[in-house]
Design goal:
Strand content: 35-45%
Organism: Halococcus thailandensis JCM 13552
CATH class: Alpha Beta
Structural class: alpha+beta
CATH superfamily: Hotdog Thioesterase
Pfam families: 4HBT (PF03061)
InterPro entries: ACOT13, HotDog_dom_sf, PAAI_dom, Thioestr_dom
Oligomer: single chain
Number of helices: 3
Largest sheet: 6 strands, antiparallel
Family: Belongs to the thioesterase PaaI family.
Distance between the termini: 19 Å
Radius of gyration: 16 Å
Strand order of the largest sheet: 1-2-4-5-6-3
Number of domains: 1
Keywords: Hydrolase
Shape: globular
Length: 154
């Protein structure tokens, strides 16, 4: 398949899936773009997603909980594999293994870019980088991850 094999309406279709998913919808996850082998998703900054609590200094910016970045890595990595399925809508993707490396605190919107490393007959692997504004005001990678996924081909 080539980039042209991903229909223009695919991002809209994936966004409807995300919107119908309770947790992803609550997070405000957005599908920004999809090409064959690559997917970009975002989660906007919201104080409900931070580690902030009583006793936190108002001088220190709120930092997004690491589990939000892990969710974004898992979701983006799995969805990026869907175009490789014979039937991307009715086929399935299920996480087998997820590895997340936290690089620095995130203090802004999260943007994940997933790259499909391999989509085999029954297993796919994606590598994901998450970027965000950091507490010092620069946009940098805040987490990286790799997921292995079971591919179900009906």
């Amino acid at each position: 398949m080539s980039d042209a094999d991903v229909p223009d309406q695919t991002a809209d279709l994936l966004q409807r899936y995300v919107d119908a998913h309770g947790y992803l919808s609550w997070l405000g996850a957005r599908v920004e773009s999809i090409e064959y082998g690559e997917l970009v998703m975002t989660i906007p900054f919201d104080t409900k997603l931070t580690n902030s609590g009583p006793g936190e200094s108002s001088e220190m910016p709120a930092r997004i909980h690491g589990g939000i970045a892990a969710t974004l890595i898992d979701t983006t990595g799995g969805i990026a594999l869907r175009p490789a399925l014979d039937d991307p809508i009715n086929g399935g993707v299920s996480t087998i293994n997820l590895n997340v490396n936290y690089l620095r605190p995130a203090a802004g919107d999260l943007t994940a870019t997933a790259e499909v490393i391999r989509a085999g007959t029954s297993v796919g692997v994606s590598a994901v980088t998450v970027e965000s504004e950091t507490p010092d005001g620069e946009t940098k990678p805040v987490a990286t991850g790799q997921g292995a996924y079971r591919l179900f081909r009906p």
